Predict the structure.
Amino acid sequence: MVQRLREDGLLTLGIVATDSEGGVVGYAAFSPVWIEGEDCQWVGLAPLAVDDEFRRQGIARQLVYEALDMLNEFGYRGVVVRGDLAYYAALGFVPAAQGQLHCHQFGTDAALLIFTLAEDALTDLCGLVEYAEPFNLLMD
Ligand SMILES: CC(C)(COP(=O)(O)OP(=O)(O)OC[C@H]1O[C@@H](n2cnc3c(N)ncnc32)[C@H](O)[C@@H]1OP(=O)(O)O)[C@@H](O)C(=O)NCCC(=O)NCCS
C-alpha cells in the first residue's frame, strides 16, 4: 500500500526511525485526504508502525511529533487518523466532533481523530473524509 502511495505521488510525508546501524525500526506515513471531495490541505496518518522489539520506548510518539512539526511548516492545516482512541488521544489527537467529520474506511469500530495545525482548520469544515484510493486495498 505504501508503495502504491509512493508510485501514485500520494506520499505527502514518510518519516523513519532507525537503530544505531541505520536499520529501520519505525515508520509513519502521511497522505492527502479529501473532505467532501475537496483537497482542504488535510492529511491522513497511516500507517504508523514500530518494530516489536523497539516498542514502548516513545519511538512512535517521536515520529508523530516530528512529522506534525514538519507538516505545520509545510502549511498543512490538519491531520486525521483512524485507530485506537486511547492511543491517539495520548499523542494529542482529539475525537472528530460527531456530525462534523466522518469516515467509512478501515471498518466501523475505529475512531476518527484529528490534530489541527492551523487555528481555523475546522472553520466551515464538515463532511466525509476519504483517504487516497490505495487505502481501499486494505478493505479488499
Ligand atoms: C502502535 C505502535 C505504533 C506504538 O509504537 P510505540 O513506539 O511502542 O509507541 P510509544 O512508545 O511512542 O507510545 C506512545 C504512547 O502510547 C502508549 N502506548 C503504546 N503502545 C500502546 C498500546 N498498544 N496500547 C495502548 N497504549 C499504548 C504508550 O504508553 C505511550 O504513552 P505514554 O508515553 O504516556 O506512556 C506500535 O505498537 C505498533 O507498531 N503497533 C502495530 C501497528 C499499529 O497498530 N499501528 C497503529 C495503527 S492504528
Notes: The beta strands are 13-18, 24-35, 38-50, 78-83, 94-95, 101-102, 111-116, 127-131. The longest strand covers residues 38-50. Helices lie at 2-7, 59-74, 85-90.
